[in-house]
Each structure stands twice: as C-alpha cells, then as structure tokens.
Design a protein that fits this description.
With about 525 residues, the protein is mostly helical. It contains 21 helices and 9 strands. The chain is globular and about 70 Å long.
Length: about 525
C-alpha cells in the first residue's frame, strides 16, 4: 500500500486546523459563518475572508494530491455542501458560502440594487450583515452603516477569482444578469460616499458618510477582475460575460491615487489600506505610492502585537468600556457613535490587531520579499494563543489592561497587553492559514490571484498596430523561452492546476499572459 507523502500529511494537519477554527462554525443549512460563537450575525466581508483558507486548502489538495482521497477532499472543500462538524467530514464550504451570500443579495435584496443605482441613498444600500440561520436581514435600513461598498466589492472580486480558478458558482443567465447589476452597483464607488470598512463614517465618528480609499480601491479591483469574465467558465458564451466600462475603472484609480496614503479626506492612514495596496486588491499601480502607504502604516499604526486600525480607535479599549458603562446610567446605551471630544480618550491606547500582520505576510509572498515574510511570521507566532490540543488561534486584538492605562498613556507600546474579542478571529485565522500554505509552497501566488493578466501581441504586425494606439507590448517571440497559452484556456489551466510551465504565474511580477490576436487588434482599430 502506497504511503502518504509528507505534503499530504502536512495538508491533513491544515485541514484539521481549518475545521477546528472555521468550518465548525459554518451553518450547515445556509453555509454562512457567524462573526463568532457569541455574535451570530454573518458579516459579508468577514465571510469572504474567512472562506479563503478553505478555498486555498482545496486548491492545495487538488495540486498536491497523491491519493484519490486527497482529490475527494479538494472537491469537498471547494464544491461541497454543509455538513456536521466532524473531523472526518471537513468538506464544505467555499461554494456553499459564496452561494449563500448570492442568495442574500439576489433574492432578498434585489430591489435595493435597482433603487440604489438611482438614489445613491444609504437606506437603499445592500445590507452589510445577515442572519446566519435564515439569510434574512437583522437590522433596519437606517439602524446600521450598511453602505460599505468594499464589502460588496470584495465579494465580487473573489467571485471572479474563484470562477477563474475553476469553481462554478453562477449557474443561470438570471444570476449572470444580477452580477452585472452588482457591477453597476459598485462602479460609481469613486463618487459614492459610504461608511467604509469599519462602518464608522468620517473621523468624527458621527455616522457621516464620505469617500473611503478602502471602498474605492476594492471596487476598482473587483471591476478589473470581472471585466470580460465569463461566469460560466469554459462552458459559457457571449451572454454569460460580464462587462465593465473602462472609464469607471479609471475614475476609481484617479480618486484612489488622490486619497492615498490617507484613508479619506477626514481620516489619516488606516491599516485596512493594506488590502488595497496589496493582496487581495492590488489596486495601486504606482509603486512609490504603495511603498509610501505601507511605511505610513508601519510608522504610525504598528505596535508590539499587530497594528491598530486607525489613530484614536476606541474599539474595546478600557476607556470605551468605561464610556459604555456611563452611557448605561446617564445617556442612550444604544448610541452607535462617539462624541468628537471622546476620541481624545483613546489616543495611545488603541487596540492592536494581529490580523494586519497576516496581510504583511501575504504582501511579502506576492512581492517576493522573503525577509518580510519571515519577520512577520515570527512576530505572528509570538502572539498566537494555543487552544485545545495546541491548536494555534489568532485573537481579534490585544488591549491595554485597565490598570495600566495611565502607564501606556505616558509611554506608548511599553505595557504588556492582553488578548480580547473573538477567539479565533476567523477573518485573521483564515488569512494566517492561507499565508502559511503559501509560505510553505503548497500554493503559488498566481493560484489565488488567477486574473492577473499581461498582454502579448501574436505577431509583429499586431505589435505595430497596438503601438500606433499608444500601447507598447512584446510579442510571443520576445518572451521566448516562456511558453504562452491563449487566454481562452485560462479556466482549463486552473481547473487542472498543471505545473508552472503550463502558464500558471508564481509572483505578481510573472502574470498570466493574454495573447493579442489579429481579431482583437482589428477590433481595436475599428
């Protein structure tokens, strides 16, 4: 009997970790993931990020399978339906989670998509969270900062990436039409004020919406990923292709570049911008601006346990707890926002989130910076908490102990902090696992970012035509001995996960190559 390879054994270990920290929380009927054991609502953004580890593990099994059992696990992780929480049945998830939110959007919120295109009103926006058991909305249209274009955009971005990797998420033309409608919903992100990734609005935290770089950048990435994508994969045709106006992408890019390195007009730099300048959005083409934003985050937001989300962030700090206690006695305990003067209380005691170190790990992998990957992997290992049987758990954040607040005020980043909040924080746990799979060589960057394309001309004549249009490209002969495949077989490539020599990219600098044929060049001339 053939024994398992070492890679198969290692993947089984990651499968147990994924099951024990993420999949065991997934609702077996709807496929949605609650924010935590105590918070039963399912946030769109958290669910998308939380399922990435499951998707990545499925790709790794598919790529490294040395038994039929491994191929079955890959299929279960990518395509399977919900199951009971048993170690023998870790299958579930990726497809189930994605289709669950599509159901939330398509069947329960379809009228809002139509209304929002005309009104741009916060009351007509898609909801940001849903009931985990029923997919129903959980709060009223005006009872939460629902308008978070980055959440809808990150869902669409990974809908595109997962489709390109070979998953079949969309099955009917009605569903294709709804995705096209969602494109219309996000394409005006560059001029739509929303509440941003942290649901708080402007810096004064009064629930005032404004343009946010996190939303504009993620929308740009989603629009680029979906443009000309066939949602039926290799089995589709013209009717199942999504179309995006190029002008809308350029508008998003211009506005994004004008905002960075700030998070918005009223807010300074925000750690969430890591998801815009690097994985998963890669929305900024100016390398100097990327580096400037990254250094701003490191300089102003990084601490000993992670990065704080933004300056004067009061979430789960001791002073916020004191404030909530006072509100219970003297004011409205249901008030969502702070008074402007209250923000000063949180200066220098902001909670630090290990989550953002997972982004630095992924950024290092995509940029080929092994030193950065090693640095942040070691830092992250130091703040992980060992659960039952030594299972590594990523906490939501680290907070200053109440009796050490004055000391931290005087000497920032010197007090030993304590873990608080969700354990594990599934969003961060998922990215930690995904980064580990990539750092250990089970996944190549191009396998979770399959839509990064470069254009080559098929012949010298086509190269000349494109040059006349102001587009400088190389020909297939220029890149010899690299083997180039036509774009039409992209889905075939990622479905079978052939070796790198078949065209799968390994880094952001080695993208999938699209061949500009004579037909495409002729169309451009017209």
């Amino acid at each position: 009997m053939r024994s398992r390879s070492n890679s198969g054994v290692r993947l089984d270990g990651y499968a147990r970790l994924v099951h024990q920290t993420i999949l065991c929380h997934q609702n077996p009927v709807t496929g949605l993931l609650p924010a935590s054991y105590d918070q039963k609502d399912a946030w769109v953004r958290d669910n998308v990020y939380s399922i990435l580890a499951v998707w990545g593990l499925g790709l790794a099994y598919r790529k490294n399978a040395d038994r039929d059992e491994d191929k079955a696990k890959a299929y279960e992780l990518e395509q399977g339906k919900g199951s009971k929480c048993s170690e023998a049945d870790e299958g579930t998830a990726t497809l189930h989670d994605q289709t669950a939110f599509f159901y939330c959007f398509c069947l329960l919120q379809v009228d809002k998509v139509e209304s929002f295109k005309y009104s741009q009103s916060t009351k007509d926006s898609l909801h940001a969270k849903y009931n985990t058991k029923t997919c129903a909305t959980v709060v009223g249209d005006d009872q939460w900062g629902h308008l978070q274009l980055d959440a809808t955009s990150v869902y669409l971005l990974f809908l595109a990436q997962m489709t390109a990797s070979g998953l079949h998420i969309i099955h009917s033309l009605d569903e294709v039409n709804f995705v096209q409608n969602l494109v219309f919903y996000i394409e005006s992100a560059y001029k739509t004020a929303d509440f941003g990734i942290w649901e708080r609005g402007d810096k004064t935290n009064q629930g005032i919406s404004e343009l946010n770089a996190s939303s504009v950048g993620m929308a740009k990435a989603a629009l680029e990923a979906l443009d000309e994508l066939d949602l039926f994969g290799v089995k589709g045709g013209p009717q199942s292709v999504i179309h995006v106006l190029a002008d809308e992408v350029q508008h998003c890019q211009s506005i994004l570049n004008s905002i960075l390195p700030r998070a918005s007009t009223s807010k300074e730099v925000d750690a969430s911008l890591l998801s815009v300048i690097s994985f998963p959005a890669f929305a900024v083409e100016d390398n100097q601006l990327v580096e400037l934003t990254k250094q701003e985050i490191i300089t102003k937001l990084q601490g000993r346990y992670g990065c704080c989300r933004f300056l004067r962030d009061g979430y789960k700090t001791p002073k916020e707890v004191d404030r909530l206690c006072l509100l219970c006695f003297y004011q409205d305990p249901n008030r969502l926002y702070y008074e402007p003067a209250e923000l000063k209380l949180f200066e220098n005691i902001e909670c630090e989130w290990p989550l953002f170190w997972t982004y630095f790990i992924l950024d290092g992998i995509f940029s080929g910076n092994a030193e950065q990957v090693q640095e942040y992997r070691e830092a992250l290992e130091a703040v992980l908490i060992k659960g039952k049987n030594g299972v590594p758990l990523l906490p939501e954040l680290y907070s200053v102990p109440p009796d050490k607040v004055d000391e931290e005020y005087q000497n920032p980043h010197t007090v030993d902090r304590v873990p608080m909040g969700k354990l594990p924080h599934m969003w961060g746990q998922s990215l930690y696992i995904l980064g580990s799979l990539m750092a250990e060589g089970f996944l190549a960057p191009g396998e979770i970012d399959p839509l990064n394309l470069s254009i080559l001309a098929e012949t010298e004549e086509i190269k000349a035509i494109l040059k006349n249009k102001g587009i400088d490209v190389e020909t297939i002969a220029d890149v010899h001995p690299i083997r180039v495949q036509p774009a039409r077989i992209l889905s075939h490539i990622y479905s079978s996960l052939e070796p790198v020599s078949q065209g799968i990219p390994h880094t952001r600098e080695e993208p999938t190559i699209l061949v500009m044929t004579a037909a495409l060049a002729e169309a451009m001339q017209q």
